[in-house]
Amino acid sequence: MQQQQQEEQELEYTPYKGEYGWSAGNVVICIFLFVLAGFAEVGGGWLVWQTVRESKAWYMAVIGSLVLVGYGFIPTLQPLDNFGRIYAVYGGFFILLSYIWGWIVDDVKPDTGDWVGTGIALVGVLLALFWPGRSEASSA
Question: Could you say which DSSP state residue 44 is in?
């Protein structure tokens, strides 16, 4: 009975608390949530920009604002419990997704400097995220 309860608790989603270990599933979840947060932030900001800077319909700003509110909740789904590290690492993904959005939506192709800078940023934030030998509990 106790083993069954323990197995059920392991299947429930609970944000990370205490000792943490990387698995393929955790990596996929982290990256998915970084990408989701990036598109929500860039997309919401773009909708507000369209209203304010491009004189588009007012409701675009309202929708964009609602998307940005939703964006604020996405990082709370991360399996890590280190707010500062999550947001710092997210910054690298934000850079990449901002350029991709601009290229796809606004037809502004990033240049070599944009790609090199993005690559450096991503390498840096991934080093921060996956630095070996560090337990999240001791660095939170």
Answer: H
